[in-house]
Amino acid sequence: MTDALKTLEIAEDRDQTEILADLSVSASDVVRVRLADPDARDGSLPLERASEVISSSYDMVLAAACAAVDPKYYFSSRKPPAASHYMRNVRMGQTERGSFVVTILSRVTPDLVRPQAGVPNDVPEPFERKVTERLVDALAAIDSSAKAAIATGNIDTFERSVEQGVSANLCDALAGMSETDGTERDVEISVAWARVRPTRHSPLVRYQVGRDIVPVLREVPECSSPEHRRKISKFAGR
């Protein structure tokens, strides 16, 4: 087991303790929110700040769940029933050291159908896996959309990413994780996939929400109404 963990540590470029933690929850996709926050050097945060991060993490996953049902630029307070049902089954795991790390466990139905060579697998993915994949796709689109919006002064980049899961709700959640006391900080979000269900993605995917794009993410929810669509233009040229 020790040799296997050392090999995985090199292959996946992450700590053995994190890998071992994932093996203990092999039936879940594991989402980690890691803060680059000076207050979290010892693995702790002020209680008020920690509650904000956990609340924003919940909002992030809820936005992905809503987008997995029906992608939209903005989701009102009335959420799709499938998304609400899914959120009742998502669990929070142990927080981890190495700054302040929130772990979110999304249990996945095991893949009991082994595909045969040359035969396409027509069995649809369970909804819980669709949510995690939608979150990954959206995070991949967030950074490029924000940078394009800054360069062009145009919100259309976010609108074109809606089908990938990008929404005003998701942008607001990510900004909430990063910003406190008027200061933006980098946030790393990673996803380790449930071992019981294969995926098209690499075993571990990481996305960095840089502090430089947080001001733009803050503006996206306000741009959900037509009169605010061009408000983001004030960030052009930064």
Helix content: 40-55%
* Terminal Cα span: 50 Å
Assign an overall shape.
globular
**What is the count of β-strands?**
7
Major sheet strand order: 2-3-1-6-7
Q: Element order, helices and strands?
A: HHEHHEEHHHEEEEH
Largest sheet: 5 strands, antiparallel
Class computed from helices, strands and strand pairing: alpha+beta
Unreliably modeled segments? 226-238
DSSP helix count? 8
Radius of gyration: 18 Å
Please tell me about this protein's structure:
- Helix content is 41%, strand content 14%.
- The protein has 238 residues and is α+β, with helices and mostly antiparallel strands.
- A five-stranded antiparallel beta sheet has the order 2-3-1-6-7, with helices on one face.
- Helix 3 (47-69) packs across helix 5 and helix 3 (47-69) runs antiparallel to helix 7 (168-178).
- The radius of gyration is 18 Å and the shape is globular.
- The termini are far apart.
- Residues 226-238 have low confidence and may be disordered.
